[in-house]
Amino acid sequence: MTQQTGKTSTGLNRRHLIMATACVVPLSVVACGGGGGGGVSTASAGGTSSSSSSSASSASGLYPNYNTNPVAANAAGMTSTAAEMAAKIKLAINIGNTMEAIGGETAWGNPLITQALVNKYKALGFDAIRLPCAWDQYADKATAKISSTWLDRVKTVVQYCINADLYVVLNIHWDGGWLEKHIDSASKDAVNAKQKAFWEQIATHLRDFDERLIFASANEPDAGTEANTKILLSYHQTFIDAVRATGGRNAYRTLVVQAPQTNTELAVSVWPGMPTDTATKRLMFEVHYYAPSQFMIIDKDASWGKMFYYWGRDNHSTIEPDRNATHSEEPYVDQQMLAMKTNFIDKGIPVIVGEYGAWRKTQPLDMPKHNASVDFWNRYVTQQARANGAVPFFWDTGALIDRTTLAVRDQAMLDALLIGAGKK
Question: Is 180 a catalytic residue?
Answer without folding.
Answer: no
